[in-house]
Structures are given as structure tokens and as C-alpha cells.
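User: My collaborator sent over this chain with a note saying "see what the structure looks like." That's all I know about it. Can you take a look?
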Amino acid sequence: MATQTVNMNCHGWAARDPSGVLSPYEFNRRDIAADDVSIRITHCGVCYADVVWTKNYHGDSKYPVVPGHEIVGLVKEVGPNVKRFNVGDHVGVGTYVNSCRDCEYCNQGMEVNCVKGSVFTFNGVDADGSITKGGYSSFIVVHERYCYKIPENYPSHLAAPLLCAGITVYSPMMRHNMNQPGKSLGVIGLGGLGHMAVLFGKAFGLKVTVLSTSIAKKEEALTLLGADNFVISSDEQKMKALAGSLDFIVDTASGDHQFDPYLCLLKTQGAYVLVGFPREVKFSPASLLVGMKTFSGSITGGTKVTQEMLEFCAAKKIYPKVEVVPIEYANDALERLMKKDVKYRFVIDIENSLK
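Assistant: Without extra context I'll predict from the sequence alone. Here is the result:
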């Protein structure tokens, strides 16, 4: 095991103001503590959360902001108490890097729901008062509890999107038993989260229908991702034909949209999960009460289910569709992400471009 080291300069890219423009930035990571793992970052996925906090959409950005919470890399150093990892291990870090570790949710491996609030991987306030900085950087120091083992032979650039986009849909799908072969799943939206919902649905043996506002998504939904059906949500005739036919719906859309037309598609006792962030959720009580339907929300997932998902993806050979880019392309990637011009997740090649 390696010994503790003094602070080292960490190279990264950061936004300094609400323009969100990223540029090179150097900062100090904390010393490695007894339970910490220091990770040399090789890849980092690009998430809409990176846009939110680099541009201060919530009014709480703590500049300089180093974004990135879909982190994959190799362990370069471990603290003396670390048991789960060794130098050279292939690991990942997701959307949070700390929690109280003592509440009912932390004790169940559901740290994302920590009663005191989990600490976000970037733009969060850690236990020592420092502001967390994310994966658009050369390395990161994290308590081993919040690190995940990437299964052997699973490609690093494909593992990155699993740590936010993947777990955001996998966790509620498992919680609502959306893994029953032969049942039917509707997926609203076909972006980073939606395409993962389709891939998981097919791996679970479900009949998958993609519900989209864009006919341009039809071919990729059916041929690239293997969906069984594709319906334009504005096509009233086809939506009517689908009424009462779906066991489950995963709604990944963050744009404002109506909910009643989709709730009507569920069978009796059907389950609807919202993982997108529209500004308002509004529907008729009858859409929920008639048919005893369930409507729920979800964010990412705890450490237990995240590790389970990584192993499931490796076993079933589930691979996100990505576009790998260098760090110099990060600003363009964020702009394209806002325009929904990506199929389906940007991944930054940190190892070969951040010098």
C-alpha cells in the first residue's frame, strides 16, 4: 500500500462564470486519507448537469466549477485502511462522493438519499468545507465507499455514462420490477437516459416502445437500439391504439410535456417513473386513480445498486452509444448537448488529451 502524499497540482478544465465557458485550470486535491482512493482519470462522460452548474442555472454555482460526474480511471494510490481496491484497479466514481454514512438510507447502501444530503461530485460542499471538483481533471481523491469496480474487460469509455445516465434509469426500473421478461415498456425521450432505458429493457426481455416527438429518431430506435416499436406522441391515432397496453413507462424527457396522454397508455396497476426534470408535473387524478396506476420519481442510485448495474452491463454486454472527444472539445460538446446533437453521450478522453 502506498503512503500519504502532499497535495499535488491537478490539471483540469473549469468554468469561471455563468458563461459556462471552460478553460484550463490547476488546483489542489486533498491529501489521501486512510480510507481514500486516488484515481488517475482516463474518461469522463458529459452530462446535462455539467451545463446546469457551469452556467449557474440553479443560482448556486461555486466558481471555478470543474464539472464531470461520470468518472472512470485507474487507482494510482490507496490509503492504509482501504480494503476493496489496489493500485491499478479499474474503477469509477458517480454523482456523489460523500454522505453521512450513518442514516437509515446510507446503512442500506442508498447513499444518494442520505438524510443529511449526499455530497455531489462537483460543486458540492464536502465535510471539510471544501468545494468538490469533478472529472474534467487529471485525477480525483475519493473515499473508497463511493468508488465502484469496473468489471474486467468492460471498456472505460463505455463505462463512464453508466455512472449517471445508466444508473438513473436502472435503479427505478429494478425498484419497480421492470425486469420481467415478456412485459411491455414505454420509453419517453431518446437521449442519454432514454437510450439506456431501451438497452436495459431489451436486456430484461421486455417489449420496448419508444415514444418520441421526432420522427428522425425512428430508424435509430428500431435498428441501432433494437426497440420493438416507435410512436410519435403527437400521432393521436397511434397513441389511442396503444392505450392500456404498457406495463411500465420510463419518462426521461426534461422538456415540458403533458402527462395524461402517456398515463393512458398504462395497463391496470402499471408503473410510471419520471427521471427527467420538466418544470411542472400536472395530470388529472383520474389518470392515476382509474387503473390503480403508480407514478413515481427517481434520481440516480445508491452504491449497492450501482455496483450491481455495472456487473449486469458487463454480463449482458450492454454498451452505451457514445461519441469520444478530447478535452479541447468540451465547450463544443456542451453546446451540442444543449441542442440535443449527440447520439447519445459525449465521453471525454481525459487520458490522451488532458496534459
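A starting point for your reply to your collaborator: The longest helix spans residues 303-316.
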